[in-house]
Specification:
conserved putative lor/sdh protein from methanococcus maripaludis s2 fold; Elongation Factor Tu (Ef-tu), domain 3; 6-stranded antiparallel barrel; rod-shaped
Amino acid sequence: MTDKTELLRQLRIDRDKRSSGTGGGPRRWWLVGAAIALVVLLGLGGWLWTRSAAPAVRVAVARPLASGSSAGGASILDASGYVVARRQATVSAKITGKLEQLFIEEGQHVKENEVVAKLDATNASAALLQAKAGVTQAEATLAQAKAAAEDITPIYRRNEKLAATGVISHEALETSKGTFDARQTDLAVARGNLAVRQAALEVAQRDMDDTIVRAPFSGVVTTKNAQPGEIVSPLSQGGGFTRSGICTLVDMDSLEVEVDVSENFIGRVRANEPAVLKLNAYPDWQIPAYVIAVIPTADRSKATVKVRVGFKSRDARILPEMGARVSFLSRPDQARPDKAGANVPAGAGVAVPPDAVQPGGDASTGTVFVLHDDKVERRAVKLGARNEDGQIVLSGLAPGERVAVGAPAQLADGARVRIAQ
């Protein structure tokens, strides 16, 4: 029994001894794990706090400008204006008279020298007949004077010979000479009178022709200003009922667009450079155009310079006085100086949303914030015009780069941002 009891005592576990000798190990490891978890939680919390404190921005990608336009390269400037006719006339009569017949209506096409209207020709016709009668009378007087001169000439020549031989006296010769000179004078007067009568006939004929009003050039009648029975005159009769014009004629082949460009940007526009037109009536229709000329004077009241823009092709939908918007394009094969004087490739440029650009010191410079992961880079850019694609950036930004849209003004270079969902 003693041996068995001893063996059982040796096999029994002494719990007091175990707890006092080895109980500190698990507790220590638990404390280490808790400390590590606390550090991880603090780091995660700090990261989340930093992320939530970073300003939220929207992101846009810089898009390359379309280079397939038939008119040229990128849009560098936009301007508004109106379609005008370079060749337009208010057709009127050269004389004052009553309008008897009118052969035109609005929208009618007429050819050059085509009869537009006729005036009452009663007085002009009578004056023409009178002038013709005067010419007939002058011709008869001239014939009579010529016959008289022809009759006296041989008599005078014979008397000269007789006087030389002493057959007739000197006094008889002087008398014959006086008659001869008188007949020559009558002949000269008759010739002059005929010339006057012929000139009067020409004037009367022109007055008669002026009762017929003709189109000065080929075009389209846009307005009709007079009706048969009204008095028309080339001179304005203020306060009366006299019409100073019969109709307005427009040469549709002379249509162009006149725009006013701010003098701050006129350096971007040059003659013969390409452009694209959009009429307000047809906003989706892009019309190839070109710069005809930059008028070499400025309007001091508006600080603008007038620019003439021509159509490369004609279309019946283009009408005078239509509103138009012109986009001046750069040449794809040329570089042009920007406002600061640096050469910018004509085909270069990207489009970004307008609120992605913070304006600079002038209208041709600005600032964008380019995203690199969660940080932004402040970058200065050269600006072009604004159009339906957005704000044109001529240099400083490459296609495909991401920019912050609606960035706060206090955003700085290298700042962290978060992308708004």
